[in-house]
Amino acid sequence: MTGLARNTAKLFSNDGKLFIVALDHPQFFGPMEGLERPLEILERLASTVADGFIVNPGLIKLMDPDLVAAKKLIVRSSLGGSKFSDYKTVHPIVFGADTLVNYGADAAIVMLILGSHDYDSMENVARAIEECHSLSVPVIVEILAEDFSKTSDPELVRTGARIAAELGADVLKVFFTEDFSSVIEGCPVPVILAGGPKNLDVLSMAKSAKESGAKGLAFGRNIFQSADPVSLISELDRILRG
Predict the structure, then answer these.
(1) 157: Cβ–Cβ under 8 A, 6 or more apart, which residues?
(2) In total, how many domains does the chain have?
(3) Residue 225 φ/ψ, nearest 5 degrees
(4) The domain spanning residue 127 has which CATH number?
(5) How many Cβ atoms are within 10 Å of 176's Cβ, its own excluded?
(6) CA nearest 240: which of 21, 1, 45, 8?
(7) CB-based burial label for 61 (10 Å; 0-12, 13-18, 19+)
(8) Which of 41, 38, 47 is nearest to 67 (CA)?
(9) DSSP 3-state percent helix, strand, coil across the chain (nearest 5)
(10) Which helix (H) or strand (E) element contains residue 143?
């Protein structure tokens, strides 16, 4: 077994599933509801059954290492601008493999954006995967559409998941779509479900994705903006792991 294979397997060490809470939104939105005081919500959620967190590098430097010693840390390595900028069709990689290793990251997460000029985004992701794999760092690729309204389009999700796998992604993070099982069947690497907008029925969505073969969940605002994040995490974990 290679170091990369071993590190990828560690992501799914909890009953073969991966449940992570996404806390990386402030890189784009700045302060937002539920994440005004990130260290406080992190401390609150660190005692839950969630396997880990998606975070930006700046938060890693501030958090108590003992608090997250048992948690997996997935570091957002790409940059997509702020809420004041134009929508970017390429999210450049700004935190390299050396930085991730120094921070003790368990994996990197980057964006693949499909649309009119997606060869640029594909090249960007492929180079990030190559660099991270040189140091045995697993890479999670998140699939988005240039036309954001198509981010849950079945054909786009299926195509994006397979393209990312072909580029070398170790795990895929995708939004829910109709016929979700076809996404799983067409992708040779593990797929985890992105939470998406806050107005969704996340419990039903998680149940359907799990029954279709999803290997995990990566939910953000649906958790940290909920009335009771701790209880919601427990409910989602029961759905995921039974």
Answers:
(1) 143, 151, 174, 175, 177, 183
(2) 1
(3) -105, 5
(4) 3.20.20.70
(5) 21
(6) 21
(7) exposed
(8) 47
(9) 40, 20, 40
(10) strand 139-145
The one-letter amino acid at 14: N
Q: What is the pLDDT along the chain (242 residues), one digit of tens a residue?
A: 799 999 999 999 999 999 999 999 999 999 999 999 999 999 999 999 999 999 999 999 899 999 999 999 999 999 988 999 988 899 999 999 999 999 999 999 999 999 988 999 999 999 999 999 999 999 999 999 999 888 889 999 999 999 999 999 999 999 999 999 999 999 999 999 998 766 678 999 999 999 999 999 999 999 999 999 999 999 999 999 98
Cβ atoms of 194 and 174 within 8 Å: the answer is yes
Q: What is the pTM of this model?
A: 0.96
Q: How far apart are CA 156 and CA 183, in angstroms?
A: 10
Structural domain harbouring 45: 3-241
**Strand intervals (E) in the chain:** 18-22, 52-55, 72-76, 107-114, 139-145, 171-174, 191-194, 216-219
Cβ(23)–Cβ(53) under 8 Å? yes
Partners of 19 in the β-ladder: 217
